[in-house]
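agent> Task received from the user: take the single chain below, predict its 3D structure, and emit structure tokens. No templates, no multimer pairing.
agent> Plan: (1) validate residues, (2) run structure prediction, (3) serialize to tokens, (4) report one or two observations.
agent> Step 1 OK, no nonstandard residues flagged.
tool_call: predict_structure(input=
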Amino acid sequence: MHATLQHSEPGKLAGQRSNPVLAEEDSAKQRIAHVDDDPDIRDTVKRILSANGYIVDSYQTMGDFLESLRESENPPDLAILDVMVETMDAGLEAFVEIRKRLPQLHMIFMTSLGEEIRPYFTGVSDEWILIVEKPVEPASFLSIIRSRLEKANAEI
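)
tool_result: status=success, residues=156
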């Protein structure tokens, strides 16, 4: 039995495509908003997504993100929200507000709570609720991002 050796390119993030031009063409400079109060997580997510051709707008507070949505006529293509940013349920409250104002905006919850937050979404379509548990593995995280953005683009 032979094992296949896999090597990674120096300086390449796990999950990053080998050809950055292809990554940029696929993402077509799609913009992703990410809200998390942990600077390490914000930095990691931004590095993973930026390395794959996405434009990332990072926010430390949900208030900052909501204000940017109110002031902008060009919402992001996708929003990644932390559930417990600022308060225990700021992410959930923001979700409700965003869905009222921008029902077409796809959102992902990135949380250390995992599926424990699912009951808060009773009566809301599962196709809109995607929960990613921290910490994230870059390759699967990128797969989730691409899938969600493809779904959003198919609806346009």
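agent> Step 4: summary for the user.
The chain has five helices and five strands.
agent> Done.
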